[in-house]
Amino acid sequence: MNTMTLESIPLYKGTILAIDDTPDNLHLLTEMLTEQGYKIRIIPNGKLALRSIANSPPDLILLDIVMPDMDGYQVCQQLKASVITQNIPVIFLSGLNETFDKVKAFEVGGVDYITKPFQVQEVLARVENQLRLQRLQQQLAQQNIQLQQEIQERHHAEIALSESEKKYRHLVEASQDLIWSVDRYGSYTFVNPIVQHLYGYSPEEMLGRSFTDFLSPERLEPDVNLFKCLLQGQSVFQYETTHLTKAGEPIQLLLNAIAVVDDQGQVVGVTGTASDITERQKAQEALRLSEIRYRELVEFQKQVLVCRWKPDTTLTFVNQSYCRFFGKSPAELIGTKYLELLPDSIQDQIRDFVKLLVNHECPETSEHIMISDQGELHWFKWTDQPILDEQGHILEIQSFGIDITTRKQAEEKLRLSEENLAQAQRIAHIGNWEFDVLTSQIIWSAELFRIFGLEPNQTEPTYQQLLDFIHPNDRSQFEETIKQSIEQGLCYELEFQILPRNRTTVRHLEVRIEPIFDQHYRIIKLFGTALDITQRQKAETALRQSEARERERAHQLQRTLEELKRTQSQLVQTAKMSSLGQMIAGIAHEINNPVSFIFGNITIGRQYFNDLIQLINLYQETYPNPPATVQEIAEAIDLQFVKKDWHKLLNSIQEGAERIHQIILSLRNFSRLDEAELKSVDIHQGIESTLFILQHRLKKPGNRQEIQVIKEYGQLPQVTCYANQLNQVFMNILANAIDAIDSHSSPGVITISTEVAGANRQRPPKNGSQQTDILKIRITDNGIGISEEVQPQIFDPFFTTKPVGSGTGLGLSISYQIIVEKHQGQLSCLSTPGEGTTFMIEIPLKPRSQQPREICLNDMDLAK
Question: What is the per-residue pLDDT for 761?
């Protein structure tokens, strides 16, 4: 016959109910068991679990011990008290590692105990083992029921055997127990189909073979002797033996056998039944080991004090730990009253507790102090379980005591820590809060009550009441932030104002919001802190006002510094231009005297020469044959050539004098020392004078081609301006254009255009000044251009892109001041790197006022 082991039973992937108030544990169990193919249900507390189990019982329960409202022991006791749920296996999962907790877990009906933190493989193995064991127990129960039914059916079948052989055959074949027959030689003559399930052999493979072929070696001799007894006519009932399956696995069988006799009373064989009790044997062995472990836990547990006592507190049992704690032997303790072992200060309290316990009027757990034989004070948590008689009267009370001194010390530290935290929050004006997303319940710390002007012993406000505290200007922002935190699961920080209960002063709060998720990553709560920053806000406001004042002072100093720089650069340039003008005027004056002398004597010299020529011609006509001496001199000086070249010489002298005179006029026109005030001038004349002075730079030096100047002059009236300063602007811009072309390889071209534009095309004048027509002067070159990064800085004082020693950085800055400040106009620049630059000068034809307006730094920045 075939033997079935626990591992050979197919694992039924049933439904498992996990009861734990820790979301992380539930999430881990769900993920772990779901991956193994189990159906997992999770419930966070005992009361909900009992209702769920009543509606839909699971195949196995994983149960935590420490839970709010109802602990795991109570849940298990109620499950075992119900006929519907008492057979559901319960495996305890707990972080309690004390032997007392494990003992109690088994006493209330647990089948196993797993200590947290648990190992995944351990949990899976124990779950599978319990499910298989439960399956086997169910099968065993079913088989026993079926066995009883089959016995009854067999009895009826024997009575009606003569009437229905077919019915008998059906019962035999349908039996879950093995029905077998062997001849007197021990060879099988009949086995029912269940043999296939038990042994793995088909009935055909069994027939004709001796039963000894299937015996385990250690059962061979006793079973052969038993067979001999059967052949002598004896019967055997409830005989246990071990057979081997086709796979060689042992199977435990419970045999019932009788001898088969023929009509002459001769034994011709043996027949009987065999029930598979392999799993039952294992269950009994597990129960036996469990009982041994229980005894070991109670007797030899070092951490748990175990005792039993009568209602009058007389001790009837104590374990070794109990004896060690009091320093006495069991003989000394048993028979004494355990109240006498307690401190005098708590004896009355414990005596009252015992009375209530005996009358079932108090919890079965208590905590109190005890003093060891060494005089040390210890806190113990006691669990008392009454042992009742059949009438429900208490015979004894079994107590388990766990030393919780360390926990009590930790609780005291925690209490002090919480007091310190509350004190720190009060000092720092920071409170914490918690908002339940599902119930909208709000929990506040004591300091948060004080911040809102409430007493800490008051009930927390509702969400709507909280909104009433928030300043109307900030209420919508607060609601939107809470909504986003719930919807997006993100942390937020915000500041808002509140109106405390007194409604007299507004307070400022800085709030941090952080969502809390369940095991399914759904937001269940919002947790946050609220810091009273009213004083900080006041300080920051004062600081900002102070900083604003300091920035204004710094800005004023910056403007003053810029004004000083502009004044300094203007003074430097004015001095330079004044010196240059004086020098030019002096040079022009000194040159003008000899030039005037030359101009004044050319006509006289020409007249004198003509008179001399007439005299010479008359002399030659009168004396055609002059003396040899005169003739030699005439040949020596080449008289005929002198007469012809003399006029050319005088014309050349006159042309040079006129050229010098023109230079003098250009220099005087450029310097205009006599025109320091506003005066109507010809702008084109000033441009031409500047070009004339720069003529030497426009012509090609070295290998560079001559720069071409294109003049696109419009019809301009006389312009009232500071002529010498305007000429300085032309000089600076044209000189920069020549420098830009010198740095470029392409042929240079400078285009100068002028025009008059109506005032309606310009932006409205400032300060209510009268509008006038605008003179526009464009000076464009095709040089290297100016980059976008540099353009905003070109009008800054002392800014230059030229090499060191090649420029002062004042030319364009002074030009900007001359155009903007002196002439109330605009100077702008448009440049494309690599293509060229255009400077636009815009000034009114007539000044808007006799005194130029002051221009601030902002105007200069805007113009840039």
Answer: 45
Do 114 and 28 touch, CB atoms closer than 8 A? no
Residues 6+ apart with CB under 8 A from 349: 368
* Cβ atoms within 10 Å of 849's Cβ, excluding its own: 10
Average pLDDT over residues 383-393: 84
CB atoms within 10 A of CB 655: 10
Q: What is the spatial distance between Cα 203 and Cα 459, in angstroms, rounded to a whole number?
A: 79
Residue 501 DSSP label? T
Cis (ω within 30 of 0) for the bond into 627? Answer: no
Helix axes 165-174, 120-159, angle to 10 degrees: 170
* Residue 604, φ and ψ in degrees, nearest 5: -65, -45
Residue linked to tokens 């042994």: 199
- The whole-angstrom separation of Cα 115 and Cα 102 is 9
d(C-alpha 430, C-alpha 532), whole Å: 6
DSSP letter, residue 765: P
Q: How far apart are CA 227 and CA 267, in angstroms?
A: 12
In whole angstroms, give the CA distance from residue 801 to residue 208. 118
Assigned token pair, 388 = 């009742």
pLDDT confidence of residue 415: 83
DSSP-assigned beta bridge partners for residue 495: 510
Phi, psi of 179 (to 5 degrees): -110, 125
Residues 6+ apart with CB under 8 A from 850: 678
Indicate whether 583 pLDDT > 80: no
DSSP state of 452: T
Cβ 487 vs Cβ 480: under 8 Å: no
C-alpha dihedral sign at 559, 563, 569, 572: negative
The alpha carbon dihedral of 793, 795, 798, 801 has a sign of positive
The residues, any chain, with a CB within 8 Å of residue 674's CB and separated by 6 or more, are none
Assessment of whether the complete model's pTM goes beyond 0.85 = no
C-alpha span between 795 and 855 (Å, rounded):
14
Span of 125-139, 249-263, 356-370 with lowest mean pLDDT: 356-370
**C-alpha dihedral, 76 to 78 to 83 to 85, nearest 10°:** -40
Six token digits for residue 421: 């935290």
Q: Sign of torsion, CA 566 567 572 577?
A: positive
Handedness of CA 413, 418, 423, 424 (dihedral sign): positive
**Is the C-alpha dihedral spanning 690, 693, 695, 701 positive or negative?**
negative
Separation of alpha carbons 409 and 386, rounded Å: 30
Q: Which residue has the tokens 């000429």?
A: 727
Q: For 662-669, what is the mean pLDDT? A: 62
User: Residue 718: which residues within 8 A CB-CB, separation 6 or more?
Assistant: 680, 681, 682
* Cβ contacts of 584 within 8 Å, gap of 6 or more: 667, 668, 670, 671
Angle between helices 723-742 and 683-693 (to 10 degrees): 40
Q: Where are the beta strands (DSSP E) in 214-266?
A: 236-244, 250-261
Q: What is the pLDDT of residue 821?
A: 84
Listed residue (780, 729, 720, 773) closest to 752, CA to CA: 780
Q: What is the pLDDT of residues 63-83, one digit of tens each?
A: 998 888 889 999 999 998 988
pLDDT at 700 over 70: no
Residue 319's SS3 state is coil
Q: What is the pLDDT of residue 859?
A: 34
Closest of 662, 731, 654, 653 to residue 697, by C-alpha:
731
Task: Measure the CA–CA gap between 55 and 36, rounded to whole angstroms.
Answer: 25
